[in-house]
Design a protein that fits this description.
Shape: elongated
Structural class: alpha/beta
CATH architecture of the largest domain: 3-Layer(aba) Sandwich
Bound molecules: cytidine-5'-triphosphate
Strand order of the largest sheet: 12-11-8-13-16-17-19-20
Radius of gyration: 24 Å
Number of helices: 14
CATH class of the largest domain: Alpha Beta
CATH superfamily of the largest domain: CoaB-like
Low-confidence stretches: none
Largest sheet: 8 strands, mixed
Mean pLDDT: 93
Helix content: 25-40%
CATH topology of the largest domain: Rossmann fold
Length: 403
């Protein structure tokens, strides 16, 4: 997979910086072309000359000098490197660089190139165990992962400081296999395709303070948006109220209620090739939301709420003469297959993704999912339990074939 691939290897400060020399050699042995960017701190541990001798190329160390690896000048070299890369691998990635990337800082060539590139960014966090386990570091990594950065789990073991625990740079072959896996998925086969994804729950207002909601976390829809963008699609993500970071290179529209989601989806749908409705849209909404807070009174031991149907977004799209490819989700507790098939036909969908709340590792909040894909032509594929991100790729493989 790495033959002919352009890899930018970012090296940051830390004892493990010397291991990046072996990593560079191995990437080249696998057939990759590698350019190295070092942060100033990295140069305190290993000299640029070492990387330069190993790679046969000049090494980028400084934002302000010209003529480093190419003849490009200060104003454009970061863009040139960012566009050259098929992937950017930062190994070792220090706590400081990770924090900067999380915050969007761009104070050296490596952070600037990371911000500028549209290609996959892979981080190998490497630091002392106590730093790695610090909640701030874990939060930074979670946010970066949600945005679509790839994070290689740190290895466990003894550190130079004598501490034991996670935070070590993984073995070189583990890193190489990880990069291989990332490049295999991010092959731009959805380039020029416009994909609309919905995600999360909707909140239906009872009064200005209270709402009816559901337990959807939005993770499946966000994984779909992330994966589609990595494959080169132009992605619009319409999200209900969730606490997830916006994936890189995704246009996000936030909505709250089922009606807002219906308006946004119907408005956007004429401009896209496919709509994937992963959102758990409320089927009912309070008939008359009250404009001021409902107070409890002495004689009110009960409160009745009248609910009305919301617009069925997929069904509305399914009725259109010229409609995009439609993918629906069905979350069922029993008779899943029969219910999903009914939805597929009644809403006029091309594909429906069935997940059963009864399957272990499926459903709301979980990072994994167990799904069955049911096609309009009657094909049924039961997939094994996978990370939601891998389920997203499996769904997109089908979408690509159907488009
Ligand atoms: N959906 C939609 N608009 C709604 C409700 C649901 O577009 N108002 C979409 C969901 O995003 C999902 C699919 O329809 O992709 C199936 O949703 P679900 O709520 O399970 O199906 P319903 O047809 O509403 O049936 P039920 O709730 O009775 O299972």
């Amino acid at each position: 997979m790495l033959r002919g691939k352009h890899i930018v290897l970012g090296v940051t400060g830390g004892i493990a910086a010397y291991k990046a020399c072996y990593l560079l050699r191995e990437l080249q042995r696998e057939g990759a072309e590698v350019r190295v960017i070092m942060t100033e701190a990295a140069t305190k541990f290993v000299t640029p000359l070492t990387f330069s001798a190993l790679s046969g190329k000049n090494v980028y160390t400084d934002l302000w000098t010209t003529n480093q690896a190419t003849d490009s000048n200060i104003g454009t070299q970061h863009i040139e490197v960012a566009n050259w890369a098929d992937a950017l691998l930062i190994a070792p990635a220090s706590a400081n660089t990770i924090a900067k990337l999380q915050a969007g800082l761009s104070d050296n060539l490596l952070t600037i190139v990371t911000l500028a590139t549209k290609r996959p960014v892979i981080l190998a966090p490497t630091m002392d165990a106590d730093m790695y386990l610090n909640p701030v570091m874990q939060q930074n990594l979670t946010k970066l992962r949600e945005r679509g950065y790839f994070v290689i789990p740190a290895a466990e073991g003894e550190h130079a400081s004598g501490l034991e625990g996670p935070g070590r740079l993984p073995e070189i072959d583990v890193i190489i296999r990880f990069v291989d896996g990332v490049l295999e998925k991010a092959h731009l086969d959805l380039k020029k395709k416009k994909i609309l994804v919905t995600a999360g729950p909707t909140h239906e207002a009872i009064d200005p303070v209270r709402f009816i909601g559901n337990r959807s976390s939005g993770k499946m829809g966000f994984a779909l948006a992330t994966a589609a963008a990595q494959r080169g699609a132009e992605v619009t993500l319409i999200a209900g109220p969730v606490s997830l970071e916006t994936p890189r290179h995704v246009r996000r529209i936030d909505v709250e209620s089922a009606e807002e989601m219906a308006r946004a989806v119907i408005d956007e749908s004429s401009r896209v090739d496919a709509v994937i409705m992963a959102a758990a849209v409320a089927d009912f909404t309070p008939e008359k939301p009250v404009s001021s807070k409902i107070k409890k009174t002495k004689d009110s031991s009960r409160l009745s709420l009248y609910l009305k149907h919301t617009t069925d977004i997929l069904a509305a799209l399914g009725k259109k003469k010229r409609r995009p490819l439609l993918v629906g989700f069905a979350l069922e507790t029993e008779n899943g297959r029969a219910h999903a098939e009914t939805k597929l036909t009644s809403k006029n969908l091309d594909l429906i993704v069935l997940n059963s709340l009864r399957d272990e590792g499926a459903g709301f909040g979980s990072d994994t999912n167990v799904v069955t894909l049911i096609h309009q032509n009657g094909n049924v594929e039961k997939l094994k339990k996978m990370a939601k991100y891998d389920v997203a790729h499996a769904i997109l493989d089908r979408v690509k074939n159907l488009l």
